[in-house]
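Two entries, shown back to back:
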Amino acid sequence: MTEVIERKVPLGAVERELLRQMKELQGPDERPVQRTRMANLVVYCTSEERAARVNTEIPEVVSVHPARVILLIADAESACTELEASVLVRPLRVGSHGFGFSEQVTLRAGRDAVHHLPFAVRALLIGDLPTNLWWAAPVPPPLAGPILYELAEHAQQIVYDSMGWQDPARGVAATAGWLQQMERADGPGRWRVASDVNWRRLKYWRRILIQSLEGAEDRGLFESADEIRVEHGRHAVVQAWMLMSWLTGQLGWKVGSGRVEPGVEMTWRFHGPTGEPLVRIHRNDDGPPELQRIRIGCCIDGRESALDLSEQEGQRLTMRVEGMEEAPRTMTVPAHAPAELVGRQLSDRERDPVFRASMGAAQVMARSLLE
């Protein structure tokens, strides 16, 4: 099958170029092929560097969730006043005997042309397919200004990633309220679901914690837990934060006061069933940019103890009970590349009430730091 390279074209010639590249890929003697698309996928980036990384991930994303991809690059460093369009058709294997085509249109805009992007996107959407917006920018969606709302006008799902937000407290506080607004936006053409890829990364941490809490519920853990310490690598503070907002809800704790030592640690005092437990989220400069360890100080069976959960060798979570002669609980964590996480999230269109409740608690925690 002929290799087709990305070609620049006038904006009005995009559809013709898509068809031309498909025919070129098919060749005169090839069997019939099909366009593989379940949705429109609009991807928004704010730099060429980030767009280059996303571009390498798109083939894996569309292999999980086939779509017409419209990649937007809003480059504030460029003074170009016109949109620049380029087209690329990728061959994708369908089953073991056939090929499909994945369509991608890339639109580049300088700082004075960004406001043209939503109008260009509307002209390129396939009208009878749902539309997803992958917000691949480092700024929280509600702090992005009008561009987010214009791009999401016809979207049924918005996928973003809170990994590496520069101002996590402000980002969490704003995003939690924005999520509630998204769900209340009823009517035709309104988006209904917004999802954070960071929450999906926590799936196995939450699973092993649930199993461990259920195993210790009748042994005094809930009543005696007095401190939780979380350790994370660089850029993973929001991930740790979301897990704590969920876990403190499981324990029945309510937020009291909070304080922050920038770049080092966040601390909250909660109101628990029998006291005022403490939560610390501590950043380690070493190690991978993800959750690394959780320690829940408590008493189990009347003895001072702790649940200690850590990641071992990158693909296994291990929960130990300190001071007890008990075998560790372990769980294998499948390796998921960022592109696979995004692709799976795009295919999961149901609301997640646990995520919403956890973000509500995270918002209260954020406000305690901002006061």
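entry 2 starts here
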Amino acid sequence: MKLWQKDTEVNKDIERFTVGKDREMDLFLAPFDVLGSMAHITMLESIGLIGKEELPVLLNELRTIYAEIESGAFSIEDGVEDVHSQVELILTRRLGDLGKKIHSGRSRNDQVLVDLKLFTRHAIRETVENATELFNTLIKQSEAYKHVIIPGYTHLQIAMPSSFGLWFGAYAESLADDMHMMLAAYRISNKNPLGSAAGYGSSFPLNRTMTTKLLGFDDLNYNVVYAQMGRGKTEKNVSAAIASIASTIGRMAMDVCLYMNQNFDFMTLPDELTTGSSIMPHKKNPDVFELIRARSNRLQALPNEIALIMANLPSGYHRDMQLIKENFIPAFQDINDCLRIANFMLKQVKIKENTVKDPKYLYMYSVEVVNNMVLQGIPFRDAYKQVGAMIENKTFTALDTIHHTHEGSIGNLMNKEIQLSLNKTLNEFGFQKTDEAIAHLLKRS
């Protein structure tokens, strides 16, 4: 079944090539397609295109289909092109000609648009929740190990004292900034394109404000041409936010791989969380973090990939856009898998607390000695030269203590402020509004 097909049978090779992975990807969109149809037909009833007695029948059957999707009992049958066709086919089988009325005033174009917006909105929420869980673990570990000193590096050379308090907290704050990106992506996603039809509106007196409220969108895409132009643009912006998170956790994963290396030896993991070698019995490989690193790198390529698919397309719908789904939809599973497993691993990491007692780290305290001399009245440049001479003639002695007090330093991590910054961003998403709207749609009369 194809919503667009007339009497001509499409060549099977053409059908296979043009459908591509749509049926596979559309299973992710299925519950959202039902929600969009429920809002649409509720609006159609308000303008007289569906009878008052017909609406509850259609809504209750759509609720049944939604429950079947949630339970895993829904599939797209062979010969059915997409989720939109499958839902309409089920309704028509169960309700007869009444099921055919749900497509009035819309096109597959705006069905796909609203499905993707609803899917993306839902997937962003899951990503935000998983990122918040990892953030909380990082803050907790930052506090737990704030007194454990490790070397800081520049140019991969030993530079100055750092701490695991700083290290864990740095990635927590990076995630907090990533949530700003995700909030912007969410706001772009949380606008209603339904009613734009094929991208040029409809001669029916559709009430697009009504469907916006029914689906819990913050607003609608006002201009119907722009609503269609949002296809691809939305995905590119959201993927940029995903890439921002991926950049954070990918870099963190690289640090872990280095820090577990025996030449660093700052941390380790329980044996059951590492893998071994087929010929080297001593190996404890950080495979999880290596795969996080690789997946994160792949995710960072996604915005560019979408941009290239969309490059040079004029306004209006083009089949090129279909391909975006194939990498965009699975990207959420990738980023959420990485966030969840990173959180699990970092809760169980074992920190080695006396690593910096090794003599090779002696000179990381050189700036501390320089600063101490400056505090005693010696000009900085003179102190710098004197300490350089001590290092050269092997007479350098490190200070016994490190005293950093300014904002964001070893002795003043400002984790509470970082937490407040994240909380402020999280409060702006307004997930409760969408929850209430969807719950109202699904409530049986």
